[in-house]
Design brief:
The chain is an alpha/beta fold. It folds into 2 domains: 124 residues, no CATH class; 210 residues, Alpha-Beta Complex (Spore Coat Polysaccharide Biosynthesis Protein SpsA, Chain A). 53% of the residues lie in helices and 12% in strands. The protein is built from 16 helices and 8 strands. An 8-stranded mixed sheet has the order 3-2-1-4-7-6-8-5, sandwiched between helices. Helix 2 links the parallel strand 1 and strand 2. Helix 9 packs antiparallel against helix 10 and helix 11 crosses helix 15.
Length: 423
């Protein structure tokens, strides 16, 4: 280890532990992701059951986009008598309710300045659906800025028929090439679709709910209760499902197009909220999931627990990067920070490993999307910068995990489904 031979032993041991932790989680994700390339063996299932769906769109001051979303849902290639569109106009101060009503949705207006946020709005709406005369088999959740592929309900219905009581659709982007920030979001979601969601579905682990574009069996929802009212209600309910032995299925071809933030400041606020919620859910569910994993040898519980550790991995990588820079800048400072490349003596093996790590996502996205837009290439080149912003965001999220502020994402233009399909 050269200059580290007489280094501070405490710093040396801590640096090794931090890097082993980060490397172990990284290796786990890479190994699991490899199963996304191995087709899942499908089992025969009954295809002729048509579930009755209640489609819920949660909206807060969404007059810019709500009409296009409702129109998108009205165009689904699913029997019109087998689904209804509900819009929650939650604490709205604009024309969201009226525009949604004019577009053909069943609108329910909610005013509650104390219990603010999507999780509370959904819980309020679920209670109303339970009391309706019409029976629904499944409830689908969407955001107001979404657009939906025409086959969405057909694909979700198939997954319900395969036995999945909770199903997540594939998330895509309405505006992938607007700015470098929207491009980074898009690259992230495109890679997650295959390397995270599809991989887990292929080996019968639970997928993760992603906030929008998912369906829940009504009877299961009544049985478990919603109760997911934190800043990341999707993550909270996923953990609740796994603790109760339920797996989230994956509908790869049921696509929801989501509007991505355009600027770093807007993205910063949104991702900070995600990290606040992530830290909150981890503090309440991580230990329970690990106990279930050990006691029942439940791989879905272990996988979900590892997912909740992801912010710790981000912070660990931040520490590793910072200390490596310091070590490089002051090589004679003897701070004692051990760098893993010392094990490989900067050999060709080390550089192949690094190259593969940085090329995996670009290869996957390019392979799946079959596009190589110049802006996408620029997105690949700036992944490192975007990734580094996660470090302070994660730190702030941990510090503010007990706060419940909800930041509304402002929409500056309307995009319809035909425009998205062209892109």
């Amino acid at each position: 280890m050269g200059p580290l031979a007489d280094a501070n032993p405490v710093v040396l041991v801590l640096s090794i532990l931090i890097q082993v932790f980060a490397a172990s989680l990284g290796a786990y994700y890479i190994i699991i992701s490899l199963f996304s390339w191995i087709p899942k063996k499908e089992v025969p299932y009954v295809k002729n059951k048509l579930h009755q769906f209640a489609l819920i769109v949660a909206a807060h001051d969404e007059e810019m986009v709500i009409e296009s979303m409702v129109e998108s849902l009205k165009q689904l290639d699913y029997p019109k008598e087998s689904y209804d569109i509900f819009v929650i106009a939650d604490n709205c101060t604009d024309k969201t309710a009226q525009l949604a009503r004019d577009a053909g949705a069943l609108v329910y207006e909610r005013t509650d300045t104390e219990k603010r946020g999507k999780g509370y709005a959904l819980e309020w709406m679920f209670a109303k659906i339970y009391e309706m005369e019409k029976h629904y088999d499944s409830i689908c959740i969407f955001d107001a800025d979404n657009l939906v592929s025409k086959n969405f309900l057909t694909e979700i219905n198939d997954q319900h028929n395969k036995g999945y009581r909770v199903v997540q659709g594939s998330l895509d982007s309405k505006n992938p090439f607007d700015t470098w920030i929207s491009c980074q979001y898009s690259i992230s979601f495109w890679s997650i679709n295959r390397l995270y969601q599809k991989a887990r579905n292929n080996i019968n682990l639970s997928c993760q709910l992603s906030g929008t574009g998912f369906a829940i069996d009504v009877e299961l929802l009544k049985e478990l209760g919603w109760g997911a009212t934190c800043l990341t209600e999707d993550m909270e309910f996923t953990a609740k499902l796994v603790l109760n032995g339920q797996k989230v299925g994956w509908a790869d071809k049921a696509v929801v197009f989501d509007e991505k933030p355009l600027h770093l400041a807007q993205s910063w606020r949104q991702r900070t909220r995600w990290m606040q919620g992530h830290a909150d859910v981890a503090s309440r569910f991580l230990t329970k999931l690990l106990k279930k994993a050990c006691k029942e040898r439940d791989m879905s519980a272990l996988d979900c627990a590892i997912y909740l550790m992801q912010p710790l991995k981000v912070l660990a990588l931040g520490v590793i990067t910072l200390m490596a820079w310091i070590q490089t800048a002051f090589p004679d400072g003897n701070i004692g920070f051990f760098q893993m490349q010392y094990l490989f003596n900067n050999s060709l093996v080390w550089w192949i490993f690094l190259g593969a790590e940085f090329l995996y996502t670009p290869f996957t996205v390019t392979y799946d999307k079959k596009i190589l837009n110049p802006k996408l290439i620029w997105g690949y080149l700036t992944i490192g910068v975007y990734s580094l912003t996660w470090v302070p965001i994660t730190l702030v999220g941990f510090m503010k995990k007990n706060r419940k502020e909800w930041y509304h994402t402002k929409h500056v233009r309307n995009i319809d489904i035909k425009e998205v399909e062209k892109v």
